[in-house]
Amino acid sequence: MGGKSTLMRQVGLIIIMAQMGCYVPASKCRLTPVDRIFTRLGASDRIMAGESTFYVELSETSAILRQATQHSLVLMDELGRGTATYDGTAIASAVVKELSEVIKCRSLFSTHYHSLVEHFKHDSNVRLGHMACMVENENDEDPSQETITFLYKFVKGACPKSYGFNAARLASIPEEVIKCAIQKSKKFESSVESHKMFRTVWKTTSSSDLLTLMKTVSLN
Protein backbone atom coordinates (compact mmCIF):
# COMPACT_ATOMS: atom_id res chain seq x y z
CA MET A 1 0.00 0.00 0.00
CA GLY A 2 2.93 2.33 0.62
CA GLY A 3 4.09 2.10 -2.98
CA LYS A 4 7.44 0.32 -2.65
CA SER A 5 6.69 -2.32 -5.30
CA THR A 6 5.47 0.35 -7.71
CA LEU A 7 8.63 2.36 -7.03
CA MET A 8 10.81 -0.63 -7.88
CA ARG A 9 8.98 -1.20 -11.16
CA GLN A 10 9.24 2.51 -11.91
CA VAL A 11 13.02 2.46 -11.41
CA GLY A 12 13.38 -0.43 -13.85
CA LEU A 13 11.22 1.26 -16.50
CA ILE A 14 12.98 4.62 -16.13
CA ILE A 15 16.40 3.03 -16.60
CA ILE A 16 15.22 1.29 -19.78
CA MET A 17 13.75 4.55 -21.09
CA ALA A 18 16.89 6.53 -20.21
CA GLN A 19 19.21 4.07 -21.94
CA MET A 20 16.98 4.22 -25.04
CA GLY A 21 17.42 7.99 -25.09
CA CYS A 22 13.82 8.74 -24.08
CA TYR A 23 12.65 11.44 -21.74
CA VAL A 24 12.16 10.33 -18.14
CA PRO A 25 9.77 11.76 -15.51
CA ALA A 26 12.42 13.75 -13.65
CA SER A 27 13.78 17.28 -13.63
CA LYS A 28 17.30 15.82 -13.73
CA CYS A 29 18.72 12.33 -14.29
CA ARG A 30 22.28 11.09 -13.81
CA LEU A 31 22.72 7.43 -14.59
CA THR A 32 25.54 4.95 -15.05
CA PRO A 33 24.30 2.50 -17.73
CA VAL A 34 23.50 -1.04 -16.64
CA ASP A 35 24.20 -4.20 -18.61
CA ARG A 36 21.07 -6.08 -17.48
CA ILE A 37 18.05 -5.60 -15.23
CA PHE A 38 17.04 -8.54 -13.03
CA THR A 39 13.70 -8.63 -11.21
CA ARG A 40 12.16 -10.79 -8.49
CA LEU A 41 8.76 -9.15 -8.12
CA GLY A 42 5.29 -10.40 -7.25
CA ALA A 43 4.24 -13.80 -5.94
CA SER A 44 2.81 -16.62 -8.03
CA ASP A 45 3.19 -20.35 -8.43
CA ARG A 46 3.45 -22.54 -11.53
CA ILE A 47 0.80 -25.18 -10.99
CA MET A 48 1.33 -27.05 -14.25
CA ALA A 49 5.06 -27.34 -13.54
CA GLY A 50 4.47 -28.41 -9.93
CA GLU A 51 6.38 -25.40 -8.58
CA SER A 52 5.23 -23.61 -5.43
CA THR A 53 5.39 -19.85 -4.91
CA PHE A 54 8.50 -20.20 -2.76
CA TYR A 55 10.21 -22.47 -5.28
CA VAL A 56 9.57 -19.91 -8.03
CA GLU A 57 11.06 -17.20 -5.78
CA LEU A 58 14.20 -19.25 -5.22
CA SER A 59 14.55 -20.22 -8.88
CA GLU A 60 14.43 -16.60 -9.97
CA THR A 61 16.82 -15.60 -7.19
CA SER A 62 19.23 -18.35 -8.22
CA ALA A 63 19.27 -17.05 -11.80
CA ILE A 64 20.00 -13.53 -10.55
CA LEU A 65 22.88 -14.60 -8.31
CA ARG A 66 24.46 -16.66 -11.09
CA GLN A 67 24.11 -14.13 -13.91
CA ALA A 68 24.24 -10.63 -12.38
CA THR A 69 27.43 -8.60 -12.69
CA GLN A 70 28.77 -5.52 -10.96
CA HIS A 71 27.11 -3.40 -13.66
CA SER A 72 23.64 -4.98 -13.34
CA LEU A 73 20.55 -3.65 -11.59
CA VAL A 74 18.68 -6.06 -9.29
CA LEU A 75 15.12 -5.44 -8.06
CA MET A 76 13.92 -7.84 -5.36
CA ASP A 77 10.57 -7.47 -3.62
CA GLU A 78 10.05 -9.29 -0.29
CA LEU A 79 12.21 -12.35 -0.89
CA GLY A 80 11.47 -15.15 1.58
CA ARG A 81 7.81 -14.40 2.30
CA GLY A 82 6.76 -17.77 0.89
CA THR A 83 8.23 -19.79 3.77
CA ALA A 84 8.65 -19.74 7.57
CA THR A 85 9.80 -16.43 9.07
CA TYR A 86 13.21 -17.61 10.29
CA ASP A 87 14.04 -19.46 7.06
CA GLY A 88 12.82 -16.54 4.97
CA THR A 89 14.83 -14.02 6.98
CA ALA A 90 17.98 -16.15 6.78
CA ILE A 91 17.71 -16.61 3.02
CA ALA A 92 16.97 -12.92 2.46
CA SER A 93 19.96 -11.95 4.64
CA ALA A 94 22.31 -14.25 2.74
CA VAL A 95 21.11 -12.92 -0.63
CA VAL A 96 21.58 -9.28 0.45
CA LYS A 97 25.09 -10.15 1.63
CA GLU A 98 25.89 -11.80 -1.71
CA LEU A 99 24.57 -8.85 -3.71
CA SER A 100 26.32 -6.19 -1.62
CA GLU A 101 29.65 -7.86 -0.86
CA VAL A 102 30.35 -10.33 -3.67
CA ILE A 103 28.51 -9.19 -6.81
CA LYS A 104 28.52 -5.54 -5.66
CA CYS A 105 25.75 -4.48 -8.03
CA ARG A 106 23.16 -1.77 -7.57
CA SER A 107 20.06 -3.27 -5.99
CA LEU A 108 16.69 -2.35 -4.55
CA PHE A 109 15.68 -4.96 -1.98
CA SER A 110 12.40 -4.58 -0.09
CA THR A 111 11.43 -6.51 3.03
CA HIS A 112 9.05 -6.58 5.97
CA TYR A 113 11.59 -8.44 8.12
CA HIS A 114 12.59 -5.89 10.77
CA SER A 115 15.38 -8.17 12.03
CA LEU A 116 16.92 -8.02 8.55
CA VAL A 117 16.91 -4.22 8.71
CA GLU A 118 18.58 -4.32 12.13
CA HIS A 119 21.25 -6.67 10.81
CA PHE A 120 22.30 -4.38 7.95
CA LYS A 121 21.73 -0.93 9.48
CA HIS A 122 25.48 -0.44 10.11
CA ASP A 123 26.64 -2.09 6.86
CA SER A 124 28.57 0.42 4.73
CA ASN A 125 27.41 -1.31 1.53
CA VAL A 126 23.71 -0.98 2.37
CA ARG A 127 21.52 2.12 2.57
CA LEU A 128 18.14 1.98 4.29
CA GLY A 129 15.02 3.72 3.05
CA HIS A 130 11.25 3.48 3.39
CA MET A 131 8.05 4.83 1.90
CA ALA A 132 6.93 7.80 3.98
CA CYS A 133 3.51 8.16 5.55
CA MET A 134 1.71 10.59 7.85
CA VAL A 135 0.19 9.18 11.04
CA GLU A 136 -2.73 10.85 12.82
CA ASN A 137 -4.19 9.79 16.18
CA GLU A 138 -1.08 7.75 16.96
CA ASN A 139 -2.05 5.08 19.47
CA ASP A 140 0.36 2.37 20.65
CA GLU A 141 -2.38 0.66 22.66
CA ASP A 142 -4.72 0.30 19.68
CA PRO A 143 -2.81 0.85 16.40
CA SER A 144 -5.90 0.04 14.35
CA GLN A 145 -7.39 3.41 15.34
CA GLU A 146 -4.53 5.35 13.77
CA THR A 147 -5.21 7.18 10.53
CA ILE A 148 -2.48 6.60 7.96
CA THR A 149 -1.94 8.75 4.90
CA PHE A 150 0.58 7.29 2.48
CA LEU A 151 2.79 9.96 0.92
CA TYR A 152 4.28 7.73 -1.81
CA LYS A 153 7.68 9.26 -1.24
CA PHE A 154 10.93 7.35 -0.76
CA VAL A 155 12.91 8.72 2.20
CA LYS A 156 16.10 7.76 4.02
CA GLY A 157 16.19 5.48 7.06
CA ALA A 158 14.35 2.42 8.30
CA CYS A 159 10.58 2.44 8.69
CA PRO A 160 9.86 3.31 12.36
CA LYS A 161 7.01 0.80 12.72
CA SER A 162 4.62 -1.45 10.84
CA TYR A 163 1.09 -0.33 9.96
CA GLY A 164 -0.44 -3.71 9.24
CA PHE A 165 -3.36 -3.26 11.64
CA ASN A 166 -4.40 -0.09 9.87
CA ALA A 167 -4.37 -1.98 6.57
CA ALA A 168 -6.52 -4.67 8.20
CA ARG A 169 -9.07 -2.03 9.22
CA LEU A 170 -9.11 -0.56 5.71
CA ALA A 171 -9.76 -4.06 4.36
CA SER A 172 -12.79 -4.35 6.71
CA ILE A 173 -11.38 -7.15 8.84
CA PRO A 174 -13.80 -7.58 11.81
CA GLU A 175 -12.88 -5.35 14.75
CA GLU A 176 -12.74 -8.23 17.25
CA VAL A 177 -10.27 -10.06 15.01
CA ILE A 178 -8.03 -6.98 14.78
CA LYS A 179 -8.09 -6.47 18.57
CA CYS A 180 -7.17 -10.12 19.09
CA ALA A 181 -4.29 -9.72 16.61
CA ILE A 182 -3.02 -6.63 18.45
CA GLN A 183 -2.87 -8.56 21.74
CA LYS A 184 -1.08 -11.45 20.04
CA SER A 185 1.40 -9.02 18.50
CA LYS A 186 2.24 -7.55 21.91
CA LYS A 187 2.83 -11.03 23.32
CA PHE A 188 5.11 -11.94 20.41
CA GLU A 189 7.09 -8.70 20.82
CA SER A 190 7.43 -9.29 24.56
CA SER A 191 8.67 -12.83 23.96
CA VAL A 192 11.25 -11.65 21.42
CA GLU A 193 12.52 -8.93 23.77
CA SER A 194 12.84 -11.48 26.59
CA HIS A 195 14.94 -13.74 24.38
CA LYS A 196 17.14 -10.79 23.38
CA MET A 197 17.67 -9.88 27.03
CA PHE A 198 18.53 -13.48 27.91
CA ARG A 199 21.14 -13.65 25.14
CA THR A 200 22.63 -10.33 26.27
CA VAL A 201 22.91 -11.53 29.89
CA TRP A 202 24.39 -14.85 28.74
CA LYS A 203 27.11 -13.07 26.74
CA THR A 204 27.91 -10.54 29.49
CA THR A 205 31.12 -11.47 31.30
CA SER A 206 31.94 -8.22 33.11
CA SER A 207 30.30 -7.78 36.53
CA SER A 208 30.04 -4.01 35.99
CA ASP A 209 28.30 -4.52 32.63
CA LEU A 210 25.94 -7.02 34.23
CA LEU A 211 25.11 -4.56 37.03
CA THR A 212 24.38 -1.82 34.48
CA LEU A 213 22.16 -4.21 32.54
CA MET A 214 20.21 -5.18 35.67
CA LYS A 215 19.63 -1.50 36.50
CA THR A 216 18.28 -0.96 32.99
CA VAL A 217 15.88 -3.88 33.40
CA SER A 218 14.72 -2.50 36.76
CA LEU A 219 14.05 0.94 35.26
CA ASN A 220 11.99 -0.58 32.45
Automatic annotation (TrEMBL):
One of its GO terms (cellular component) is MutSalpha complex. Residues 1-26 form the signal peptide. GO terms for biological process: mismatch repair. Residues 72-88 form the DNA mismatch repair proteins mutS family domain. GO terms for molecular function: ATP binding; ATP-dependent DNA damage sensor activity; mismatched DNA binding. Gene3D superfamilies: P-loop containing nucleotide triphosphate hydrolases. The keyword Nucleotide-binding applies. SMART domains: MUTSac. PROSITE patterns: DNA_MISMATCH_REPAIR_2 (PS00486). Belongs to the DNA mismatch repair MutS family. This is DNA mismatch repair proteins mutS family domain-containing protein. The gene is 106077256.
